[in-house]
Amino acid sequence: MSATPNRAQASGARKPDSLRSLRAGAVWGALPARDQQLLLWLMAGDIVTAQLASLLVYGPLRIAQRRLSRLVEIGLLRGFWTAGAQRPHGRCAYMLTRAARLEIERLQWPEGRPDRPAELPPSAPIHQLATHDLFAAFLRAGNPTLSEGIFAWLPERACGQLFGFLRADALAGIRVADRTLTLFIERDLGTERGEVLAEKVRRYRSVFARAPEAPIAVGFVVESARRASTIQSLASRYVTAGLCFLTIVAERARADPFGARWFDGQTERSIRELVGDPVSGDQPVLTPGCLLDPEAIAALDDRAALMLPALRPYVRL
I need a surface site. Which of 51, 189, 245, 294 has the fewest CB within 10 A? Predict the structure, then answer.
């Protein structure tokens, strides 16, 4: 046997029949509907944890973990560990592979994607996940019986495509009974310098300064009361009718999104007190398991902007 050559050589190339060589278009029809819905959401949402995936579509956490692992095995997702100074313990997250994103894009737009401005580089994963934590809190707190909750949520990627140089971390359409609020979300982790924050405030003012009839709020969700004070000091220099700058400590917002008090520089008010626009058309509240409804995806990507009448003059669709 010692004279028999060892022909088992490691190969860097994937075999044609390996799971990772399959294209998204080839396996799409064989995927469960829940997997398809999550992958479609990731086209805008960019990144997901097992906890968020379970909230959006899978239900039990163990099922979410198993399905995400399977999608990594197939080669549609890549899993990785993400941590930072603000989240030193880190957590496991998942994103579409580049090949899967291109394939799903072809499935969505067989004749080519509509013309849009070139996409800006996404925020760091730790920052996107911090914003998604707020999204999850709003979902958990939604109450269709009281018509209280979010009816639209645009992630960072969708905001960048729709508003160009004004790229919020998220945009929420919030409903309380028969009133609504259009709320831009700026998730601040305390890493940006004062001049960067001031530029953000100036951009919002430059876009919405001539629209006093459209009540729009910009909410900075921060890590400390001291950071909130810094932002309010900057915002006070750019007072604009119809545009309100709010701050809140993230822990409070996650614990009670609708009851927690947001500070506008003078008074503290909850979301229930901030809503002002009348409800326009059918705006159902989004709750856990929302992606089980195939139609709900339209409230979670760039199409959701059409559900916010105050923003229609500014949206590039």
Answer: 294
